Amino acid sequence: MAQSQTVENYLKTIFQAQMALESAGALVPMGQLATALGVVPGTATTMVKALADSGLAHYEPYVGVRLTPAGEKLAALVLRRHRLIELFLVNVMGMSWTEVHDEAENLEHAVSDRLIDRIDEMLGRPAVDPHGDPIPDPEGTVPTPEYDSLLTCPIGASVTVSRVSDQDREFLQFAENHDLRPGDVVRVEERSAAGDSVQLRGRNDRRITIGARAASKVLVHAVRMIAVLLVASGNLFAQLPSASPATEPFRITDNSFLVEEAFNQERGVFQNIFGGVRVNNSWAAAFTQEWPLFSQAHQFSYTVAFLNDGDENGVGDTLLNYRYQVMMEGPGRPAFSPRVSLVLPSGNSARGLGNGSIGLQVNLPFSKQTGNWYWHGNGGLTWLPGANATFRQGDLAVVRRDALTSPFLAGSAIFRLRPMFHVMLESVLSFDQSLREVGTARGRTFTLSPGFRGGWNIGDKQVIVGFAVPTSWSDTASTGVFCYFSYELPIGKKS
Predict the structure, then answer these.
(1) How many CA atoms, within 13 angstroms, populate the side-chain half-sphere of residue 291?
(2) Which of 205, 235, 265, 286 could form a disulfide with 292 if both were Cys (CB 3.0 to 4.6 A apart)?
């Protein structure tokens, strides 16, 4: 069958409809298809039969239609053209995200795959279009991330708008006017079943009320800020470890902000660390204090978090950390210092300031110097056996509890420009498990954070300051600023 504009429109419409079906393998009703395409049922049936004869669809009379694998691939490539064109029109041509859908409907049938590949490359291989819809790859594979909507996400938690499912221009303008574009951070304060409405808190503490139907079209993810990593990593360092004899030791080795180093505090020295991050209208801060226990082999520390999501603010969960120096760095071997942390539920989970569960975190940090470079690698997980979140069911607030396990990997590279000034690049990949209204879901977040660190040795004390610009990608990207301050001094000395 020739791939005409009409054929492509049918394939795309069937494909999008079947992706929205709850049951895998279910058929798209013919009446629904005809309504979506603006044709009478008889016309839709004639075209669907032709698609079936060509091997692109499976049709059951009086039941519905579903694409075959060959039809799904062709439909996905039409979607790929459509969504890349939308992003091109917004990012390059400067058009509004509210007006590009209709333009892309026309252009998607006229451009070649070669041109689409060049557009994809020029835009940096984007994952989503301006509305947050996932962009299929050149092989026709469509990512299927899981979302909450503003009707199902936890009450009181900050969420990031990831996708707006209604492409109607008026609805997109409505979303823009109510701070509901992809990337915006909002907080659901209340849902009213009687009023059929949802109350939100948006940018600059703005109060917003929208209807339940509109809320169902705004898909969101929980805010996975760098702040979570800040609290999870907990131990940010400014030690002076041994290094390979063939290389000059770094004068400061508190190199990483988000990536833990494999060096305990030296005997007789303790450290006070403050780190803060701001992303959109939310911020978080953490204070950590590290103490050696009798020798450098054993170290105790604690981390207290402070959170503010634009509305709620207060103390977050607390970590009590123990780390054992298994191996010091030497020729041909890295330093290795595993850590185990007790998570205390000091944050109010009902207000979105904690997980509401005692738990454990384990991390395995390695560190190795090569000339003017220092390399750090981490692998670990956080386990919360009784995490809880509040969901609204009608006028009732229902608290769900479940066990959550969230593994993570991290690495950093530090380059010594001057003895007391370093530039750095850190990365963190986390696989966060979160509560849903029914069951749990796992998301993936990648963070890349360039920054720098400098310091001064003042007698037997050391002061370190640092700055970074972390960017996180899950389904949308968010960029923040990170500030760091450390003060290290001998035990028994006054500051």
Answers:
(1) 10
(2) 265
- Low-confidence stretches of the chain (pLDDT < 70) are 1-3, 223-248, 254-255, 310, 392-395, 492-495
Could you give the count of Cα atoms lying within 13 Å of 232 in the half-sphere of its Cβ? 29
- Note the pLDDT tens digit of each residue in 453-462: 999 888 888 8
Report the C-alpha gap between 74 and 69 in whole angstroms.
Answer: 9
d(CA 207, CA 71): 45
**Measured on CA atoms in the order 109, 171, 445, 438, is the torsion positive or negative?**
negative
In terms of domains, do 234 and 371 share one?
yes
Q: Which residue has the tokens 């902000």?
A: 257
pLDDT digits (tens, 9 = 90+) for 435-445: 887 788 888 99
Residue with tokens 């004899």: 245
| Owning domain of residue 213 | 148-222
Q: In CATH, what number is assigned to the domain containing residue 63?
A: 1.10.10.10
* CATH number of the domain residue 454 falls in: 2.40.160.40
Backbone angles phi, psi at 439, to 5 degrees: 75, -160
DSSP per residue over 243-301, as a string?
--TTSPPPS-----SSS--S-PPPTTEEEEEEEEEEETTEEEEEEEEEEEESEEEEEEE
> How many helices (H) and strands (E) would you count in the chain?
9, 23
Are 158 and 240 in a shared domain?
no
Q: How many other C-beta atoms can be found within 10 angstroms of the C-beta atom of residue 379?
A: 14
* Residue 135 forms part of a structural domain: no
Half-sphere exposure of 429 (CA within 13 A, CB side): 4
| 236 and 204, same domain (yes or no) | no
Phi, psi (degrees; rounded to nearest 5) at 240 = -125, 80
The whole-angstrom separation of Cα 305 and Cα 226 is 12
Residue 133 lies in a domain: no
* Residue 59 neighbours by CB under 8 Å, 6+ apart: 48, 49, 51, 52, 65
Closest by CA to 317, choosing from 274, 358, 350, 281, is 358
Chain mean position to CA 413: 22
Beta bridge partners of 398: 391
pTM given for the model: 0.58
Domain end residue (candidates: 181, 196, 222) = 222
CA dihedral sign, ordered 398, 200, 147, 159: negative
186, 312: one domain: no
Strands of the sheet with 185-192, listed across from one edge: 148-149, 218-222, 158-164, 185-192, 197-201, 207-211
Distance of CA 111 to the CA centre of its chain: 33
**Cα(273)–Cα(380) distance, rounded to whole angstroms?**
22
Give kind and range of the element (H or E) at residue 115: helix 113-122
Domain tally, the chain: 3
